[in-house]
Amino acid sequence: MTDISVFPNRATNNLIILYPSNISSFKLEMLDTNGITVLFENKALNNATEAALAIEFLEKGFYACKSIQ
Description:
Number of domains: 1
CATH class: Mainly Beta
Distance between the termini: 8 Å
Largest sheet: 3 strands, antiparallel
Number of strands: 6
CATH architecture: Sandwich
Number of helices: 0
Radius of gyration: 12 Å
CATH topology: Immunoglobulin-like
Strand order of the largest sheet: 1-2-5
Shape: globular
Structural class: mainly beta
């Protein structure tokens, strides 16, 4: 399992995801409180350790992020 950081808490427009430098891509799934997938991202990092996800289209609420290997 890869250690990731997701911030800011109470995001409105973008989520920043920090990954260790030893991975080349990531898959991330965002779930609502009912367990329904509302966002799925599969991105190449191109030697970066940070990625931004646009979330302004999501309704205000609570969401969980899950990293998929």
